[in-house]
Each structure stands twice: as C-alpha cells, then as structure tokens.
C-alpha cells in the first residue's frame, strides 16, 4: 500500500515516491524556490433551484410529521422542566412566595393526564409537577410526633417536610392567587391551570403508618381547602368536582372513607385487579390502581405486552370505566427507555386515564408516542 514519505526517507527508495526539491542552484548557491501565491477557488454561485429544493424537502419533512423531531433537536440545549427550580425562593428570582404565579409561572402550561409519582422527591414538590402539566401528585405521609411528615421511608423524614408545608399550604396559596378578589374578578371557580381552569388537581395521599390513626390527621389537615370550597365532594348521590380531588391509598381505611353515606370529600384508590363483585364505584373511589409489574408481569424481553397481557390490561381498564373510576398502573418499567415509551403508548391507546411517571420531561414534553424518525403527536385526553 502506497504511503506518503518525507524527502529524507524517499531519497533511497527505488521507484517509490520521491520528494520534490524545494531549492535550485543559482551562481553556485542553493536558492529557495518561491512558492506561487495561493488562490482561493472561485465560489460557485448557488443555483436557485438547489435552494428551492432544500426548502421543499424541509417543508415535506414538516408535513410528514417531523416537526416534533426537528423541534426537539433545536431545543436540545434548552432548560429541562426542573431547571427553573434551581434557585427557587432566592431573592431576585421572582419565585419568592411564588409571586409570579399564575401569570408567568403557568401561562403556557397544558394539563397532561399524568401522575407525578413520588412527587416529594422532586427539587420543588408540587410546583415541579404542575409546571410540567401533571394533573396528579403523590405524597407519602407518616404520622410522627403529632404531625404528618412526608418521605419515601423513615430515613428521609424531616420535621420541616410536612404534609401541610409541601402540599396543603402551597395549594391554598396557588388557588388564592388564581381566584383573586378584584374589580375584574370575584369568583371562586378556577383551578391551578390557567389554560384549563376547570381541571381538577388529584392529590394522592399514600398512608405509610397505620390507617386507623393516620387518616383522621389527613382529614383534619385538609380543612383549609375544605373551608374555601376547593375539595371535590360527594353529596346526596352526586359527585361535585372542585379544584382539588383527594384520594387515599396505601393504608387508607376504606371503612372510614365510606363512614358517612351522604357526604364525603375524600375518595379511595380502589384495587384495579379486584373490582369485580366489589363495592368500589365513583361515589366512594376515584382511582383504580395496581402494580403493573405484579398484575401484568414482565415485558422487558418482548418490549411490549403479550396477547394475554394485553387482554388483561383491556379487561381491567374496561371494568374500571364501567364503575366510573380512573384507571392507573404504578410500577411501570422505567428502563429500557424504548420499552417504557412503548408501554406508555399502549396504555394510552387502550384508554388508561393517568400515566404514572417519574420522568416529567419525557412524559409531558417529549413525543414518546412513536419511535420512528417521523414521530406523531397523540392527544392523550383528559
């Protein structure tokens, strides 16, 4: 194989490449050769047809549905959902006391039927979720020393991270700002989303300590929302939807939920896989949930449910809807990403009511509904 060689190495190499001398002899002395001036090649004028063809191809890609793909590439260096919370509450950021809510903070947020799983893990609980568009948030509560502390396990509990400080008080403040008393507005009907003020916020309260003693504390701490008339409630056989819908799960005692047969402003998270021949319906429950891993099974090897698994998903969602309940699976496969996205897509196509998500950016900003080069957006409804 031929290779380039230096003048020194080429001097004694038979018929291989030879170096070009860079001097000539003049009056007995070696004189350097003067290199001719380098000329840049003349620029070829761009043909108008080439420019028109390029624009036509771009228009075709956008028309075929590549808009979301192109948009993602253009926004690759933009801030993620949580970046806005890096300096939350610091002077000069506009977030002191959420002073910029709602005009700036929520002005372009579209509600998305997703549930912010383990919401208290986020940099700023509750606010991160609603800024992403999630209509549901989750708080794990523990009864400790006369208060409800929020955390995934006992090692994460801190006295200043309470149910009131992380959820009740912020929700109250947001709704007060959404429903001001001014010369232009004096009503009390708007929820947390400016773009859809009728959308209810689902507050899922997961009891980690004994239900009999913990649930009464939850009910009492909901009083600020109750006094304002912001809790969805059941009365005289009818559901009245309001700004916040509270749902108890975990160790929540169903018997305490239904103790009052004529009025209640909290609801139960019914077991999605045990609805048949049960007492769960929309008058006492809101969600119907179950672990995807436990009830549907492993989908990692196939990348999507088998026919039997898909039939089970359809049957469970159908049963929930027949009872007026909102179907939700938790413990969805988080990885590989393409499997997670495929499961999200299938669940939405089969009529799931809320996606249980950890990655807010991917669920609410990304187009995960199609994995090809030309992704299409789907309206996953309310």
Automatic annotation (TrEMBL):
<dbReference type="InterPro" id="IPR017946">
    <property type="entry name" value="PLC-like_Pdiesterase_TIM-brl"/>
</dbReference>
<dbReference type="GO" id="GO:0008081">
    <property type="term" value="F:phosphoric diester hydrolase activity"/>
</dbReference>
<protein>
    <recommendedName>
        <fullName>Altered inheritance of mitochondria protein 6</fullName>
    </recommendedName>
</protein>
<comment type="similarity">
    <text>Belongs to the AIM6 family.</text>
</comment>
<keyword id="KW-0812">Transmembrane</keyword>
<keyword id="KW-1133">Transmembrane helix</keyword>
<dbReference type="GO" id="GO:0006629">
    <property type="term" value="P:lipid metabolic process"/>
</dbReference>
<dbReference type="InterPro" id="IPR051236">
    <property type="entry name" value="HAT_RTT109-like"/>
</dbReference>
<feature type="transmembrane region" description="Helical">
    <location>
        <begin position="49"/>
        <end position="70"/>
    </location>
</feature>
<dbReference type="InterPro" id="IPR039559">
    <property type="entry name" value="AIM6_PI-PLC-like_dom"/>
</dbReference>
<keyword id="KW-0472">Membrane</keyword>
């Amino acid at each position: 194989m031929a290779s380039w060689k230096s003048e020194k190495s080429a001097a004694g190499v038979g018929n291989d490449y030879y170096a070009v001398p860079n001097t000539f002899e003049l009056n007995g002395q070696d004189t350097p050769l003067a290199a001719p001036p380098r000329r840049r090649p003349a620029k070829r004028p761009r043909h108008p047809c080439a420019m028109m063809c390029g624009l036509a191809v771009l228009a075709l890609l956008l028309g075929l549905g590549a808009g979301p793909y192109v948009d993602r590439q253009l926004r690759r260096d933009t801030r993620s959902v949580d970046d806005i919370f890096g300096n939350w509450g610091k002077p000069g950021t506009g977030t002191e006391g959420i002073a910029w809510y709602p005009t700036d903070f929520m002005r372009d947020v579209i509600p998305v039927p997703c549930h912010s799983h383990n919401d208290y893990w986020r940099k700023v609980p509750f606010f991160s979720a609603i800024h992403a568009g999630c209509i549901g948030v989750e708080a794990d509560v523990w009864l400790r020393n006369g208060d409800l502390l929020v955390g995934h396990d006992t090692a994460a509990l801190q006295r200043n991270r309470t149910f009131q400080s992380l959820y009740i008080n912020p929700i109250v403040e947001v709704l007060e700002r959404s429903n001001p008393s001014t010369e232009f507005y004096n009503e009390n009907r708007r929820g947390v989303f400016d773009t859809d003020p009728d959308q209810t916020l689902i507050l899922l309260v997961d009891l980690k300590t004994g239900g009999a003693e913990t649930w009464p504390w939850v009910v009492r701490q909901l009083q600020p929302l109750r006094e304002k008339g912001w809790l969805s409630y059941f009365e005289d056989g009818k559901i009245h939807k309001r700004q916040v819908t509270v749902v108890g799960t975990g160790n929540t005692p169903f018997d305490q939920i239904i103790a009052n047969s004529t009025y209640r402003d909290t609801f139960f998270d019914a077991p999605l896989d045990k609805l048949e021949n049960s007492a769960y319906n929309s008058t006492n429950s809101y969600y119907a949930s179950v672990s995807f891993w436990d009830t549907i099974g492993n989908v990692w090897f196939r990348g999507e449910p088998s026919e039997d698994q898909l039939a089970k998903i359809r049957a469970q969602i159908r049963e929930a809807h027949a009872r007026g309940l909102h179907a939700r699976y938790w413990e969805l496969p988080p990885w590989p990403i393409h499997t997670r996205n495929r499961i999200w897509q299938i669940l939405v196509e089969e009529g799931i009511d809320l996606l249980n998500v950890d990655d807010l950016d991917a669920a609410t900003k990304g187009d995960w509904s199609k994995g090809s080069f030309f992704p299409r957006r789907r309206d996953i409804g309310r």
